[in-house]
Amino acid sequence: MTSTTTAAPERATDRDGRHGYDDLAPQLERLATEPLDAPGRPALREYVIRGFRPLVRNLSRRYAPPGPAGDDVEQAGMLGLVKAVDRYDPTSATGGPLGYLIPSIRGEMKRHLRDHTWSVRVPRDLKDLAVTVQRRADALGQEFGRAPRPSELARDLGVGVDEVVDALGALDSHHARSLDAPVGTDDGNGEATPLGERIGEDDPDLDLAAHRSEMHALIDRLPERERRILMLRFYGDRTQSRIATELGISQMHVSRLLSRTLARLRAQLSEQD
Predict the structure, then answer these.
(1) Concatenated DSSP letters of 27-86
(2) Sequential DSSP letters for 178-193
(3) Other C-beta atoms within 10 Å of 179: how many?
(4) 63 within 8 A of 117, measured Cβ to Cβ
(5) How far from 202 is each of 29, 141, 198, 238, CA to CA, in Å?
(6) Which of 71, 188, 194, 204 sits between 20 and 30 A of 260, alpha carbons compared?
(7) CA–CA gap between residue 74 and residue 87 (Å, rounded)
(8) Residue 194: beta bridge partners?
(9) What is the pLDDT of residues 76-125, one digit of tens each?
(10) How many angstroms separate the CA atoms of 101 and 55, rounded?
């Protein structure tokens, strides 16, 4: 093994431009032609992969911001690099090593962004359309000097307006927003209101809304005494003993009438459902 393949690969700043990786081309071609069991091949493979790593790092910056998300995209790009290095064929590669490696690296990055970075589950065809819509929206925005309308995007892409609207909605679901994120200053104190405080809660009355009109109709058909007992108990907040005193009957009788009335109402509501 020569010193060319044992020296430490250059830093990313040393490998810039179209010819920044020309010195690795002979090693990549040699790796592609050597038998898998050739002595020194693992070390040569590692050297080549390390040498092209700055290429992955530079490409990852185009697809993701710095931070954990960018690290994941870079890892996906490294996977694409390893796959491309292992299947590199000098006789079929066009445009030199970079013309062969870059599409593989970029493809793995895009696949990762498509399959693993959405906050909610979105069908794959809608993800692909969303990416295309976003790219064309940027291009048309520069051309028009304003954001393109869904109808203009649909005409440009040759798809329906409904499909474009769905794709734009999918783009809104790409990244989740924190419930602590400020969304306005409508609290009167000039302070931003967290998004979580604007999200409504379940209203238990909604479950009863569908039955309210039916319940009123059933109550109106009750005998006078049963209807009055029901109203005094649940709308007048009277105790059974007080109801018994007002009606001049025993508390036990009030309890039996109330239980029978409620059972009848439940049965009638169940039949209607």
Answers:
(1) HHHHHHHS-TT-TTHHHHHHHHHHHHHHHHHHHHHHHS-SSHHHHHHHHHHHHHHHHHHH
(2) PTTSB---TTSSSPPP
(3) 11
(4) no
(5) 64, 41, 13, 30
(6) 204
(7) 20
(8) 182
(9) 899 999 999 998 888 777 777 888 888 899 888 888 777 766 656 667 78
(10) 9
Map 225-250 to HEC letters.
HHHHHHHHHHHCCCCHHHHHHHHCCC
pTM of the complete model: 0.47
Read off the DSSP letter of residue 194.
B
Using CA atoms of 239, 240, 241, 245 in order, give the dihedral in degrees to the nearest 10. 100
Task: Give the 3-state secondary structure of residue 213.
Answer: helix
Lookup: tokens for 96? 């030199």
Query: How many of the other CB atoms lie within 10 Å of CB of 84?
Result: 22
Q: Is the dihedral of CA 14, 83, 18, 69 positive or negative?
A: negative
3-class DSSP string for 96-163: HHHHHHHHHHHHHHHHHHHHHCCCCCCCHHHHHHHHHHHHHHHHHHHHHCCCCCHHHHHHHHCCCHHH
